[in-house]
Amino acid sequence: MKKYIFVFMAIASILASCKKNAEKVISKVEYQCPMKCEGDIVYSKNVTCPVCKMDLKPISKPIKEVSAEISDESIFNLTSKWNTEEGKSIVLKDLKGKTLVMVMIYTTCKAACPRLTADMRNIEAKIPEDLKKKVHYVLVSIDPKNDTSKRLKEFAKENYMDGEEWTFLQGTEDNVREFANVLAVKYKQISPLDFSHSNIISVFNPLGELVHQQEGLGVDNKETITKIIETVNNN
């Protein structure tokens, strides 16, 4: 819980310039029998009551509609530019619209990163087929000097992560450090090709807001899968 609070505080601090989600109240018209023959049952179309055959009466039901504006906590407020494994330049906001599962790795890692990569594949494999196109998986390199777009593309192919649902990102050292702070991921270079780092997989909703984190290697990902499915279904 303390880690989660810290992460949200970090995001709020770094992304404080954004507007909050705006809510507006609108009216949704539904129809109901004036005699309430079927109790509280309502219809979306103006037809006749199947019981008494009377014309249905329109009723207005106020509902809240949340705008698509991003909040202070959204990673899409970050303006840093990134290179993908396909050699394209993007900003994080270009990933908006799908539930995101993100992790920070580096391709020359021989210990933790192969297991984190396997965890990401395992998560992807457990998402129901009808929801797969609504989830995107992003692997961010903490070694921008060596993990070029070309190297990330090779790594994607080597690890069977070369489909449209996968994206690999290379940024500048400053961009990587900023993004790691947002995710509460700590890393330190201990040799030219080796880093010590946190092992955290993060889940974001389609507006870029953190909703869940999984920490550790090879852990039970049931809670993560549940949260991803819940996030997809609620957006």
Can you describe what's shown?
Helix content is 26%, strand content 28%. It is of the alpha+beta class. It has five helices and eleven strands; from the N terminus they run H-E-E-E-E-E-H-E-H-E-H-E-E-E-E-H. It has helices at 2-14, 112-126, 149-158, 173-183, 222-233; strands at residues 23-32, 57-66, 81-84, 89-91, 99-105, 135-141, 166-170, 187-191, 194-197, 200-204, 210-215. It is elongated and about 80 Å long. Mean pLDDT is 84; it is low at 16-27 and 61-67.
Layout of SSEs?
Blueprint: H1 2-14, E1 23-32, E2 57-66, E3 81-84, E4 89-91, E5 99-105, H2 112-126, E6 135-141, H3 149-158, E7 166-170, H4 173-183, E8 187-191, E9 194-197, E10 200-204, E11 210-215, H5 222-233
Parallel strand pairs: 5-6, 6-7
Antiparallel strand pairs: 1-2, 3-4, 3-7, 5-10, 8-9, 10-11
Helix pairs in contact: 1-4
In short:
This protein has 235 residues and is of the alpha+beta class. 26% of the residues lie in helices and 28% in strands.
**Alpha carbon gyration radius:** 23 Å
Which strands sit side by side, in order, in the main sheet?
4-3-7-6-5-10-11
Helix content bin: 25-40%
Largest sheet: 7 strands, mixed
* Mean of pLDDT: 84
Apparent shape: elongated
Could you give the distance between the termini? 24 Å
| Topology order in helix (H) and strand (E) letters | HEEEEEHEHEHEEEEH
- Give the amount of beta strand, in percent: 25-35%
Q: Which class best fits the helix and strand makeup? A: alpha+beta
Q: Please give the number of β-strands.
A: 11
